[in-house]
Every structure is written in C-alpha cells, then in structure tokens.
Amino acid sequence: MDWLSAFAGVFRPDVFFYLVVGVVSGAFIGTMPGLTATMAVAVLTPISFWLEPACGFAMLIGVYNSAIWSGGISAILINTPGTPASMASTFDGYKLSQKGYSGLALNINTIWSVFGGLVSTVCLATFSFPLASFALKFGPSEFAVVALFGLTMMVSVSGTSPVKGLLVGFLGLLLSTVGLETIHAYKRYTFGQAGLLDGLNFVAVMIGLFGVGEILYQIYTTERDAPSMKAEVKTKKQMPSLKLLGKLFPKNLFASAISVIIGAIPGAGGDIASIICWGQAKRTSKHPEEYGEGSVEGLSVTCTANNAVIGGAMTTMLSLGIPGDSVTAILIGSLMMYGMTPGPMLFIENRPFVLTLIAQMVIANLAILAFGLTTSKIYPKMLAIKKTSLWVVVLFFCFVGAYAINNSYVDLIAMAVFGIVGFCFKMLDLPNGPFILGLLLGKLLEANLRRTLAMTMGSYAIFFTSPINVVLLLITVLSLFLPTFNKWRKARKASSN
Predict the structure, then answer these.
(1) How far is CA 382 from the centre of its chain?
(2) CA 301: distance to chain centroid?
(3) Are 320 and 289 in contact (CB under 8 A)?
(4) pTM: predicted TM-score of the whole model, two decimal places
(5) Fewest Cβ atoms closer than 10 Å to its Cβ: which of 29, 139, 260, 306?
(6) Cβ-contact 482, 158 below 8 angstroms
(7) pLDDT of 131-183, one tens digit each?
C-alpha cells in the first residue's frame, strides 16, 4: 500500500507537472556542452525551495536523470559530451553518427540510459532500506569512521594528481569549520556576520562553484564571435530491433550492476563508471575491434553506465548521508533546507517521502523514454543556440537563486566568491570532488568524533574494539592503498616484460 500511495503521489497534477518540467529542462541543459547536470541541479535548487518537498524534489530528480541521459546527445552528434558522464559515449556514438546512423545512436542512448536508470532505481529500492536499518546501529564513532572513509575518497577523485586533490580537499575541510563550533557553540571565522553562524551555505557554494565558475571559464576560454555548434547530420528515426536489444541485454545488465556499485562509492561518478564498463565490455566482446569505430554494443554500455550510477549515488546519500557524486551532495543540502537530514533516521521519520522520491525516479525515467524517442529531430536546433545567450540566462538564475535561498546578501557574496574559486580551479586543473567531500563531510567527521571522545572520556579504544568500526577502518585502509598497490603491480609487470 505504501508503494501504491507513493506512485499515486507522483501522478498528482502539481507533482507530475514539476517532474516533467525537470525532465524537459534537464534534456535542454544536458544537451548543451558545458551546462552540466551538477550545474542544473545547483541552479534550480533554490527555485525548488518555493515548492513543497514532493514538487521540489520531483523537479530536481527529473533534471538529474534527464541531464545525465541528454549529455550523450551532443556526444553523438558533435563529438562533445554534454556532461562529463557522457565522455565515453563519444568513443562510438560519434562514429555511428558519421556513418549515417545518428538516429539509431540517439535511440540507443535513450533506451539504454533509461534501462540503466530503472535498474539502479530497483537497486535503490532494494538496498537503501536494509542499509538504513543497519546504519541505525551506528553511534557517533561509527559515523565518524564512515565520514573518514568518505574523505579518503579524495585521493580516488583527484585525477592524475593526488597532491592537488588533497590540497583542495583540505581547503574544503578548513571551510567546513566556519560557523558555530559543534560542542560549545564558539564562533569560528564568522567575521561578525550573523549569516555565517550556521556555516557557509552549501547550496550557494555549489551554485558558485559549478554555475558561475563554469560560465566564467567558458567566457574566458571561448573565442569572441565563435560560431555556435551545429550538428550537420541526419536524425531520421532508426529504432533498434527487438533482436538487437535482446542481444545487448546481458552486457548492459552487467554494466548496470557494476555502475550501481561505483555510484555508491563517495566521489565516483558516471564518467568513471562508463569508461570502466566500456573497457570491460570490450575485453569480453566477440568483436573488440569494432569498439571505438562505431560499435552499437560499446555505445549502449556507456549509456547504461551513465544513468545506472544515479541509483548507487542516491543509496549512500539517503541511507548514510554521504554523497555518491556532486549532484547528490547538492541534494543533501536541499533535504536539509527542507528540514530533513539524510541518513538512517530519514527512513523512519520521513518514510513516505523516501518512497515518493524512489517512485519519482521510476516515472522520471519513463518520461525520459517517451520524450527522448519522440524529439530526436530538435536536438541539432538546440545545439545551434548561441553560447552567449545561455551564459546570460544561467548567470541570472545563479544570482537570483543564491539570494532567494535565505534572502541573504551573505549567500550572494559566498556564491560570487566561490564562482571565482571555481574559475581558478578550472584554470589550474584542480578537481572539484575533493573540495566537495571536505566541505560536506568535515562537519560530520568533527561532530561525531568529538561526541565519541566526550562519551569515552578522551579514549580512542572504541574505534578498535567495535566490530563495525574495525570493518569500516579496514575498508578505509584498503581504499587508500589498493590503487597504489595496483599501480605498483602494473609497473612491475611492465618492467618485467
């Protein structure tokens, strides 16, 4: 009955309307290179605060799923991924488009993105509740270790330079201390501003980092009077046959499973999942030589992986309060603005809302399927829109949204400052992921660590005597040293050859 009520709630006229608005908006934003899913959710989050939670999150869920899917459209048509998650879709998608199969490639992108999204949603519904129930056994020490595990992912999401990632991550940790101290409510780095007593507004920071920062970078790096991107390709409908879909099903089911797991890892994203799944599919393919040359199989796997990550990221976000990617980090801020705290208690105190959110994921994917299969002809026209027009619109929503969060000029200033920070990150090739993890998990680590030490009279023994803590610490250590070990093993193997 609970699930029936949840799905019935999605089809409320107002909720369904905002979900469709989110899907259409996400399709537009994801198709345009440079306008990422993270940017879309960050910019639209303040607007969602004017709505009730069911309507606001329907719009954000629609944008999230749709923007990830539509990022593959520009990857297929102009060899430029609309979002980072669609980078691997350029490997085969553009080659298919050049061969005259752009319609087929677009439909493959839609069908298998929806498939990945639905499989990951089933996983979300299946695993999030048991995980939340297990997390109810957690005390402050366990949550401190979980936060520590999340912070160790700073190394994994640092790209080619772990040093840069760690520096940016520690900057995020430092900024997480702004506001009232956890135990004694001492003021820290507030500079006499009442608006900073609760710390930096996370949503305002994200709008600046991913919205303003990205636009400033595009303005700086784009040549003046540069022509708009045009997709000079045929987009006639070319539906894949049921035989072809059945042939692709096993590999894409496996890719979905892998991507859900990757999505559940803090800081990991669709770009990592799609590359891993593409490489795995190539190794097990009967025709590996076709990969990178316009393989339908290769394209379908990357499309599946992109959206399958979402369910995994949502699972850790809802159950543990730890973001799986940058978008779920923003959604944590959104939940908190609605007075809901992500974590195991969310499933007890706001169970109907959790069920409704999962139902929204299902309906959003079905809406993407219908929308994507019927609108392929409009995408080349969308790609012809001038970038300058997009910049003006995005910046307008950034400034209006940042101020509207709390009607505070402090949030507006924070957005502007972190817009410059985001620009500098792009110019210096510094990763955003570690900064987000540090800023978001810093407070969680500090609060629970201090509560633990207060309970144990300053003793750290509980971290090594509690079975849950021991297991979590072992996982944390493995996550730190396993990538280094793999690199050493590969280097040794290469030298021996």
Answers:
(1) 24
(2) 19
(3) no
(4) 0.80
(5) 139
(6) no
(7) 888 888 888 888 888 888 877 776 655 556 677 778 888 888 888 888 887 77
